Amino acid sequence: MAAQTNTDKSSRVKNLGKFFKYTKNELKKVIWPNRKELTSYTTIVVVTCAIFAIGTWIVDSIFAKALQFIIK
């Protein structure tokens, strides 16, 4: 394998610098939610996760009981 030259390394550093510059510019375009919206969105996510967790638990319990019934 050939050793990397200094120009390869410097071009990588320049590309990394461009990446962070473009990322910063894109983040300036983001419309960030205010505190009320953030609280609302977080509540929706937590409630939805809880509902799906309870639903998964119920379905798992039904399958476990059915499997126990079949095995006995």
Q: What low-confidence regions span 5 or more consecutive residues with pLDDT below 50?
A: none
Order of helices and strands: HH
Number of domains as seen in the coordinates: 2
Estimated structural class:
mainly alpha
- Work out the strand percent: under 5%
Shape category: elongated
Count of β-strands:
0
Distance between the termini: 64 Å
The level of helicity is over 70%
Largest sheet: none
Q: How many individual helices?
A: 2
Describe the structure.
- The chain has 72 residues and is mostly helical.
- It has two domains: 1-30; 32-72.
- It contains two helices and no strands.
Give a short summary of the structure.
The protein is mainly α and 72 residues long. Helices cover 85% and strands 0% of the residues.
